[in-house]
Amino acid sequence: MKVLVTGGGGYIGSVLIPMLLEGGYKVKCLDRFFFGEETLADVAGDPNLEIIKDDIRWFDPKILQDVDAVMDLAALSNDPSGELDPSKTIEINYKGRVRVANLAKKYGVSKYILASSCSVYGFQDEIVNEKSQTNPLTTYAKANLSAENEVLPLADDSFCVTVLRQATVYGLSPRMRFDLAINGMVLGFYKNRKIPIMRDGTQWRPFVHVKDTSRAFIMVLDSDPSTVNKEIFNVGSNDQNLQILPLAKLIAEAIDLPFEFEWYGSPDKRSYRVDFTKIERVLGFKLKYTPRKGAREVYDALVEGKITDSIKTRTVEWYKYLLEAHKIIKDVEMRGAIL
Ligand SMILES: NC(=O)c1ccc[n+]([C@@H]2O[C@H](COP(=O)([O-])OP(=O)(O)OC[C@H]3O[C@@H](n4cnc5c(N)ncnc54)[C@H](O)[C@@H]3O)[C@@H](O)[C@H]2O)c1
Q: What residue ranges define each of the domains in the chain, with the CATH number in brackets?
């Protein structure tokens, strides 16, 4: 079976692709590689992996001819990046992914999985499940929801469409992200012995390890279409809905350092607790990792010098840099690295 992973050079994709290859799948990775091609260095020579450096907005659809399934991960991947240039966020995260889904159907691909986000729930008082009213607060969340709303109706007996609303991801990846809550807290602890906490720490957020969320994509891939077609699944676990301040304490414990913290930012408007019963009931999906274990692995990797916090690990700063470079640099050769 051949799987096309868009955004496969990213934080999740560069963990997911080696897992697919280990599972015996053939993989095509379609990515602009905004964070560099080195994220796939460990698997780059694998005969079962084809790397295509192109954009989901204008790639040649012929690459879909021999593809059985698509995992659509390409996106400007968080709320602040989505606000840098909202029209580009809509172009990529919404229209670009709808284009991928439509072309996949046209070219006879049998399964399409959209990487969406629990951020579509926005601020909510109640615990939310897949049937709850959504409340997208940002361009990023709105683009995810618009993409969901347009790809799900494409589902039919020969084109299976599944939406995965992932919790906030944590853990090690070849394209490290320190703009994600748990990873960022660990970095703060490592650098300043203080955990940075966005005010006021009472906000709820669901979490999932990068290897666990990658496994969810593979479980959907392996599932009979009758169980996943036209379905939305929240990806995470009921026991990994955490409030930010207690989470920070738990991270200090996991790293075995005294708990010190500092506030940053204005109060976070997003707060949501998510029900993950459906994915466990329907797919038997259970998490293997905990924030404690994830925090420890990130901390150890920092101490051992295996990862650093270069500008590329802070998604919004890196995209800002690329957008500014686009204004300044006219050199045609540079266009490949530009939004
Ligand atoms: N990491 C999380 O906590 C999280 C949570 C929920 C949902 N998601 C979603 O999962 C997906 C993957 O997230 P991630 O954390 O790996 O993000 P990431 O930023 O690390 O990876 C996204 C990848 O998409 C590529 N890309 C961006 N625009 C492109 C375009 N127009 N054409 C081709 N490639 C393009 C980038 O080069 C990058 O490699 C995204 O859709 C994201 O919104 C992530």
A: 2-171+206-242+271-289 (3.40.50.720)
